[in-house]
Amino acid sequence: MEIAPCRAEDLPLLDLHMPSNSADSHHAARCLRQEAGASTYLVAWRDGAPVGRGEVRWTGCAAPEVRAALGDCPELNGLAVWPEALRGQGIGTALIRAAESLARERGKDLLGLGVDRDNPRAAALYARLGYEPGVPYTDRWAYTGEDGARHECADSCTFLVKRLG
Questions:
Q1: Burial of 158 (C-beta count, 10 Å sphere; 0-12/13-18/19+)
Q2: For residue range 9-59, what is the model confidence (pLDDT) as tens digits?
Q3: How do beta strands 110-116 and 150-163 pair?
């Protein structure tokens, strides 16, 4: 497995293997943020196919509750392993370790990530890797469906943090 920052030429394969299920390509949006310097969009590759992804947002979490408590603590956002059958094989752990390494290289002493309160499997992984509960918050996001309608979503989450020292 290889983990590398996303390149524009990776977008068709990402959309094919890890579809966003909306009219908008969240991969393209993440790649654009990376090109602007606001993030690093990491992709895990196995045998030429993308099998995982996660975006380190250098500007921090957008949720006001998290920003008030932690300022611009970098956030690992949108961590995913796909297809689901590949979960539990170390891909998520490798992506997290790569994000931590990037944060250290930038002189950051904290890295955070959000976990949905209804996702105990992910919460257990993050705890094993040293992430501790930081701030409860509501993750608000939106997407444009295939029908062209905008859908607003809100998930109850906990922002977890890890000291990188």
A1: buried
A2: 999 999 999 987 665 678 999 999 999 999 999 999 999 999 999 999 999
A3: antiparallel
Residue 130 DSSP code: T
CATH topology of domain 2-163: Aminopeptidase (3.40.630)
Paired tokens of 72? 């611009």
Distance CA 113, CA 128 (A): 14
Torsion-angle region of 39 (φ positive above 0: left; ψ -120 to 50: alpha; else: beta): beta
How many Å apart are CA 14 and CA 54, to the nearest integer? Answer: 12
Among 142, 154, 114, 155, smallest CA distance to 22 is for 142
Do β-strands 49-57 and 75-81 pair in parallel, antiparallel, or remain unpaired? antiparallel
Helices 91-105/120-128 angle, 10° precision: 50
Cβ atoms within 10 Å of 48's Cβ, excluding its own: 7
